[in-house]
Amino acid sequence: MVGAPFWRGVGWEQSYVSGPEIRSRIRRWYVANATYFLTVVTRDRQPLFADSANLSRLRQVLHNVQELYPFRMYAYVFLPDHFHLLILLTLPTDISKLMQSLQWNYTMTHKRDRGLDGKVSLWQRGFWDHVIRDTLDFERHLNYIHNNPVKHGYVERPGDYPDSSFCEYVKRGWYDEASDPNGAAEYLVSESITPYEPG
């Protein structure tokens, strides 16, 4: 249930990609009923989500935005300065509107909860999206998400990181953490891929 009076979707049609050397305007490729891998980064890589209250706020905003722009969650990882999602968009959701709504509503909620006035810039401009092409591509991005905390040196094994969907997939039998001495998640092929909603 959306409680904040300012809560709304946004209708920006264009998005931007930024990098250390280039920031260029792009047209996003919209695919109906597609699975997307998404990366969102905080402004100047500030460790916004190292604060548990900020991370809790992100989870709640993500659930609220899901009511405005329906999607199904397959996997996620929230790190201090960025996060990755693997989601299935359902019609008529538009990926740019969903992500702009997520960023805008998070910023407004953050300002309200912290009693801040004036402009607050929390996000790197734009976001990275990739349309999943096939099962192998899905598996590769699922593994990437779950190994991300290891890659960035936060933990030695994916199962030691609390803010990802990895442990849920261990419970489902998709990963065998016991045979994972180096922290590399081995994906076990499953014929039925069912969404997982983060709590």
The protein's oligomeric status is: single chain
Q: List the uncertain runs.
A: 1-28, 189-193
How do the strands of the widest beta sheet line up side by side? 4-5-3-6
Portion in helices: 25-40%
The number of helical runs is 4
* Share of β-strand residues: 15-25%
The topology string of helices and strands comes to EEEHEEHEHH
CATH homologous superfamily of the largest domain - what is it? Transposase IS200-like
Structural class, please? alpha+beta
Number of strands: 6
**N-end to C-end Cα span:** 15 Å
Q: What is the approximate shape?
A: globular
The CATH architecture classification of the largest domain is: 2-Layer Sandwich
CATH class of the largest domain: Alpha Beta
Biggest sheet descriptor: 4 strands, antiparallel
Count the domains.
Answer: 2
* Mean pLDDT reading: 79
Named CATH topology of the largest domain: Alpha-Beta Plaits
Describe this structure in words.
By secondary structure, the protein is an alpha+beta fold. The chain contains four helices and six strands, in the order βββαββαβαα. Helix 1 packs across helix 2. The chain folds into two domains: 30-132, Alpha-Beta Plaits; 134-192, no CATH class. The chain has a four-stranded antiparallel beta sheet, covered by helices on one side. A two-stranded antiparallel sheet has the order 1-2. The two termini are 15 Å apart. Residues 1-28 and 189-193 have low confidence and may be disordered. The chain has helices spanning 52-68, 95-114, 135-151, 166-172, and strands spanning 15-18, 23-26, 35-41, 71-78, 82-89, 128-131.
